[in-house]
Amino acid sequence: MKKCFKTLAKEKLSIHQLSGTDSHLSVFEVAQLFDVITGKSDNHFFLTNTLVSNGICLN
Asked: Whole-model pTM?
């Protein structure tokens, strides 16, 4: 499950990078996504963070 969150976080950061100044992510949200990728966030973060979990399909 963590691998899925990391992949999704990387995708959201790639979209953020491509969007440039038109990106809707705040600096705080980008920092949270980096924490997911580097493993600095705890398991509770994965369950409660809608920034990462919005795009997850469990099918």
From this structure: 0.67
Contact 41, 52 (CB under 8 A): no
19, 22, 32 from 49: Cα distances, Å? 22, 23, 9
Share of the chain above pLDDT 70, in %: 66
In degrees and rounded to multiples of 5, residue 26 shows phi and psi of -85, 170
Degrees, nearest 5: CA angle 36-40-45 = 60
- Angle at the Cα of 22 (from 16 to 28), degrees rounded to 5? 55
Domain boundaries, the chain: 25-50
